């Protein structure tokens, strides 16, 4: 069973958040709900299943080496009725796509992020826009001042929330480690 109260994500290190959050404070109505993140699996399994899932997720992540992502370019999704989500494009896509595929092998019912036309699209959401004019202003504003951010990713974060509280990291699943090691650092 899946829930919208949990997700598996990549979280940039907090020292890289400031320029991302500066954009989100102006443009993202969901800034109070989510930390900056790249969604891998959402909806995900309930928090009570995290312990049971940890060994299989750790096995999938054991084959992944830490990798560097760069947030250099912006993109957007159109949702119909002139509504858009604006996002930063985490490059390169290949390690994220491979990680996503490995995680979907563990929890195949949590493949919702792969279902849109074109499949899974790694992104870090920074806001919403209504109408073509607002989208053009938003992109013009952020693209003219954005300085690329690079950071190393070492783990998948399993996040959860209750009620209207923001998501918090409940467990880290590190890359390149066996389950015995994961159990000691969770």
UniProtKB/TrEMBL annotation:
SUPFAM superfamilies: LigT-like
Keyword Protein transport: no
Cross-referenced InterPro entries: Cyclic_Pdiesterase
GO MF annotation, one: ligase activity
Superkingdom assignment: Bacteria
Keyword Ligase listed: yes
Pfam families in the record: 2_5_RNA_ligase2
Keywords: Ligase
PANTHER family per UniProt: 2'-5' RNA LIGASE FAMILY PROTEIN (PTHR37474:SF1), RNA LIGASE/CYCLIC NUCLEOTIDE PHOSPHODIESTERASE (PTHR37474)
Official protein name in the record: 2'-5' RNA ligase family protein
The organism of origin for this protein: Polyangium jinanense
């Amino acid at each position: 069973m899946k829930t919208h109260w949990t997700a598996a994500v990549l979280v940039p290190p907090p020292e890289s958040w400031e320029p991302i959050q500066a954009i989100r404070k102006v443009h993202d109505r969901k800034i109070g709900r989510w930390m900056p993140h790249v969604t891998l699996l959402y909806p995900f399994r309930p928090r009570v299943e995290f312990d049971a899932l940890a060994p299989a997720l750790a096995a999938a992540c054991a084959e992944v080496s830490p990798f560097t992502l760069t947030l250099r370019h912006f993109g957007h999704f159109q949702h119909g009725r002139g509504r858009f989500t604006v996002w930063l494009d985490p490059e390169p896509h290949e390690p994220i796509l491979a990680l996503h595929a490995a995680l979907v092998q563990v929890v195949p019912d949590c493949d919702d992020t792969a279902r849109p036309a074109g499949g899974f699209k790694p992104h870090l959401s920074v806001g919403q826009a209504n109408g073509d004019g607002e989208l053009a202003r938003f992109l013009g504003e952020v693209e003219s001042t954005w300085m690329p951010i690079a950071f190393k990713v070492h783990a998948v974060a399993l996040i959860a929330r209750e009620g209207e509280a923001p998501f918090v990291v409940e467990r880290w699943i590190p890359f390149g480690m066996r389950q015995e090691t994961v159990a000691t650092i969770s």
